[in-house]
Amino acid sequence: MGTIIRAVTKNGDAKISVITARDAVERARQIHHLRPVGTAALGRTLCGASLLGEMLKEEDATLTVRIRGGGPIGSVVAVSDSAGNVRGYVANPAVDLPVRARDGKLDVGGAVGADGLITVSRDLGLREPYVGSAALVSGEIAEDLAAYLTESDQLGSACGLGVLVDTDESVKAAGGFIVQLLPFAPEETAAALEENIFLMDQLTTILDEDGPEAVIDQVLRGMEPHVTERTDMTYKCCCSRERVLSAVTSLPEEDLAALRADGKEVEVLCQFCDAAYTFSPEEVAAWTCREEEDGGPGGKSG
């Protein structure tokens, strides 16, 4: 179980959301059999998506962060609900890279790449989701997310995301923060935040040794922050047998016909949690008939 904490400065110039999500990122590592650099890349993205998802006001809303930077790890995807519960995957979980020579840290930017976009989709239950994109800055995730927020929300934003991988490749600490200036905040507040973030201890060290409240204290040092809300979050997949079968039967008719003609069972793995679902050709055929009767894919409605 992880936690998201929201806080605001005493004078209302800035707000912050902080997440600690070691268990959620460790669960993702185990599900996808990630190597350390993949754990860091997906873990940072999960934390960022969770922070943004928890900010959504609509109860059934979801938010998806998709990063394509042209690096060897391929696409990085994280989906959050409005409570901050997340799930996600990377296209190539077996990718591993040497640590960076300059500082000995995991080379997330090298794995993700910086030649591409970060795309954030907010599904609020309307006809179409709200989708926004921004060019990647570094592929290190936090800088890219901050750039997207500044561009899309027109509010000065800073983001820190980190995953500390232990010597046995398990997750020792994971989390991050998003801090934003509120409308009409003076330049002095922006300057103070910038200095506080520059001088703060390493994020994963703070989370590992002192907890998320210490992140708030360091980022908003001198601004008398007070906590406004706490929310529990976890790694949570929403797949089910019916959902997966519905996805299978949305394939083009020629593919469905081939599956039925093959006469063999169809096994489908959920990309988010690796759960395996097996369907007989008869089940696929029966579901397709039901969809047609209901006016779904392949059918007609009056």
State the helicity in percent bands. 25-40%
Rg, rounded, reads 21 Å
Q: What structural category characterises the helix and strand content?
A: alpha+beta
Q: Write down the CATH topology of the largest domain.
A: Hsp33 domain
What CATH first level of the largest domain would be assigned?
Alpha Beta
Given as residue ranges, the uncertain stretches (5+ residues, pLDDT < 50) are: 290-302
Account of the protein in words:
It contains ten helices and twelve strands. The chain is α+β, with helices and mostly antiparallel strands. The chain folds into two domains: 2-233, 3-Layer(bab) Sandwich (Hsp33 domain), CATH 3.55.30; 241-293, CBS domain Like, CATH 3.90.1280. The strands form three sheets. The chain has a five-stranded antiparallel beta sheet, with helices on both faces. It has a five-stranded antiparallel beta sheet with strand order 5-4-3-6-7. Strands 11-12 form a two-stranded antiparallel sheet. Helix 1 packs across helix 2 and helix 9 runs antiparallel to helix 10. The protein is globular. The model is unreliable at 290-302 (pLDDT under 50).
Give a brief rundown of this model.
35% of the residues lie in helices and 27% in strands.
Helices, strands, pairings?
Elements: E1 2-8, E2 14-20, H1 22-32, H2 36-54, E3 62-68, E4 76-81, E5 86-90, H3 108-112, E6 117-123, E7 130-135, H4 142-153, E8 157-165, E9 171-181, H5 187-199, H6 203-209, H7 212-219, E10 226-233, H8 241-248, H9 253-262, E11 266-269, E12 276-279, H10 281-293
Helix pairs in contact: 1-2, 9-10
